[in-house]
Amino acid sequence: MTEKFVKDVHKRMYGHVWKWAGEFRTSEKNIGIRWTQIGIELKKLLNDTKYWIENNSYSPDEIAIRFKHRIVSIHCFPNGNGRHSRMMADIIMESIFHEELFTWHQSNRVKANEIRMKYINALREADNGNVKPLIEFAKNESQ
User: Are residues 17 and 87 in the same domain?
Assistant: First the structure.
């Protein structure tokens, strides 16, 4: 749970695609916080997550999803933030909690547009403080 690890995961995921993979964005986007605040907000998220884990503040599923939601809203990188955030949630589930990975609706490629809308709606619910739909989406429990 360090900034270096967050960057390294992004670089390992996308280093073969983008030369800048693993480097925080240095410009404003229509999504995410101001680029100058990325390091600060990520540090807060990492500290919060460590606290949640150490104090069993939430279930493992909820900790991983809260982390995923916050890091994607920070929007650390110019591109690849959604997949990166899902990978980070899976890493938390597997490496910290020794739990099964989320499915993220991977088995349903036929209804891709419908699934994407469910994902976006679940993210919007999380934006409003309700992470349950995003947890359900990640676990593929809602159809």
Answer: yes
